[in-house]
């Protein structure tokens, strides 16, 4: 089995990505990040998801990046927008964008992967329900892959199995792979129950509804 690094936030998309990596026969190492996000409870969700999918503790990593990122509502600079409609969510770059987050995350993924002999990584970026984040675009992933080929010994193939799927298709795939969707956390506020009003909650709820499946999370 080939080793692969899977970026695991504890959210819906990254959880389905981990399930896909397992289905494709990879031995996953999970990498999560504490970057001072409001919803740091997602780190607990990531640990629970990894355990449920059989990733042992010695193959889980959490990188402490607190103090590095700023300029985003997710790190406390401004309020998380609530109750935005579907049309509004799909326009422009939202205040929840964390500058260069995926660029930094993937660079650290390459640093972890190389000594493991891993030439593959999985990230749950999505080009359809991506909420305007520039570092989720396929062009960015292609450019990073090229940079990794030049900047590391063996290069890094970045897999984005959810890139062209709708949120409903991601939900359906996760259910088909028996991913532990009930353990995931999507809410930008990280509340229990989930707020149901932020962009992430709305995209998730719509995805489950369009997939015809019950969302296992409770909402306020």
Order of secondary-structure elements: EHEHEHHEHEHH
Q: In which range does the helix fraction lie?
A: 25-40%
Strand content: 5-15%
Total helices: the number is 7
- Shape category: globular
Largest sheet: 5 strands, parallel
Structural class: alpha/beta
CATH superfamily: HUPs
Q: Detail the poorly predicted runs.
A: none
Distance between the termini: 43 Å
> On the 0-100 scale, what is the average pLDDT?
91
> What is the CATH-assigned architecture?
3-Layer(aba) Sandwich
Largest sheet, order of strands side by side? 3-2-1-4-5
CATH class: Alpha Beta
Number of strands: 5
Write down the domain tally.
1
Determine Rg (CA atoms, Å): 16 Å
- CATH fold-level topology: Rossmann fold
What does it look like?
- This protein is an alpha/beta fold and 220 residues long.
- The protein has a single domain, classed as HUPs (Rossmann fold, 3-Layer(aba) Sandwich), CATH 3.40.50.
- It is 37% helix and 12% strand.
- It has seven helices and five strands; from the N terminus they run βαβαβααβαβαα.
- A five-stranded parallel β-sheet has the order 3-2-1-4-5, sandwiched between helices.
- Strand 4, helix 5 (138-151) and strand 5 (157-159) form a beta-alpha-beta unit.
- Helix 1 crosses helix 6 (167-176) and helix 6 packs across helix 7 (199-211).
- It is globular, with a radius of gyration of 16 Å.
- It starts with a strand and ends in a 9-residue tail after the last helix.
- The relative contact order is 0.19.
- The model has no long low-confidence stretch (mean pLDDT 91).
